[in-house]
Amino acid sequence: MFACASVDATPFSYSTSKVAEGIYVFAEPTGHAIVSGNTVVIVGDDSVAVVDTGHHPGLTRQMIAEIRALTPKPVTFVVNTHWHNDHVAGNAEYAAAFPGAKFVAHAFTARLLDSETRTFQSATCQGFLRVQSKPLREALAAGLGLDGVALTEARRKRYQRYLDEADTASAECLEFRYRGADLAFEDRVTLRLGGREVHVMFLGRANTAGDAVVVVPDANVVAVGDILVHPFPFALQSYIGEWAAVLRRIEAMKPAVLVPGHGPPMRDLGYLADIASLMESIDRQVRTAYRSGMALEDLRKQVDLGEFRRRIAGDDPFLQANFDAMVAGSAVARAWQEATGKLEPEGLPRL
Question: Do residues 149 and 297 share a domain?
Answer without folding.
Answer: no
